[in-house]
Design goal:
Structural class: alpha/beta
Strand content: 15-25%
Strand order of the largest sheet: 3-2-1-4-5
Order of helices and strands: EEEHEHEHH
Helix content: 40-55%
Radius of gyration: 15 Å
Largest sheet: 5 strands, mixed
C-alpha cells in the first residue's frame, strides 16, 4: 500500500451557532485546533455565508488538499435533521472551495469526547464553550487521519 499523500487537511465541526475548525500537519499525522467561527445564518441562498467564505480563505492560505466535515449520525446510525444540515453545509462549502474535495465523515460523539477531554484538562464552563467546537473539529479530523493511515499501511 502507499502512504497517505502529503498535504494539509482541514477538519470542520458544523454547529447551530458556531463552526469549529482544525488543521493537520502536512504529513497527516496530527490534528490541531485552528479557530471557531460564528455561523452566518442570515446570508441568502445565492450568497456565500461569512463562515464559509472564511473557511475558503483558510483553505487557500494553508494550501489545504482535503476538507473533512463532520456528519452527525444518530447513535442508531441514521441521519436526522442535524445530518441534513451538515450535508447542506458541506455542499455549499464544496462549491466555494472547488476543486478541493470535501469528505463527510461520521462524527458520532465527537463533541461529547471533546467536552470530556477539555474537562479532564480543567477547561470548564464559558472557557469550554469557547473552544469545544475546535476540539470537536480536532476529534473529527484526527479520526479521519487515523483511518486513512490504517488504510495505507
Amino acid at each position: 500500500m502507499t502512504a497517505l499523500p502529503r498535504g494539509v487537511r482541514l477538519g470542520v465541526d458544523v454547529g447551530q451557532v458556531r463552526v469549529g475548525v482544525a488543521l493537520s500537519d502536512p504529513d497527516g499525522i496530527l490534528a490541531t485546533p485552528l479557530v471557531t467561527l460564528a455561523r452566518d445564518l442570515k446570508t441568502g441562498i445565492e450568497a456565500i455565508p461569512a463562515d464559509i467564505s472564511e473557511i475558503a480563505r483558510l483553505v487557500e492560505l494553508h494550501e489545504v488538499v482535503t476538507v473533512v466535515v463532520g456528519l452527525p449520525v444518530t447513535l442508531a446510525g441514521g441521519h436526522g435533521p442535524a445530518a441534513t444540515q451538515a450535508k447542506a453545509y458541506a455542499r455549499r462549502l464544496a462549491a466555494a472551495i472547488a476543486p478541493v474535495p470535501v469528505d463527510l465523515v461520521d462524527e458520532r460523539m465527537s463533541t461529547v469526547v471533546a467536552s470530556r477531554r477539555l474537562a479532564e484538562r480543567g477547561v470548564r464552563g464559558r472557557r469550554q464553550r469557547a473552544v469545544v467546537d475546535q476540539a470537536a473539529a480536532v476529534e473529527i479530523l484526527q479520526s479521519w487521519l487515523d483511518r486513512q493511515r490504517r488504510r495505507t499501511e
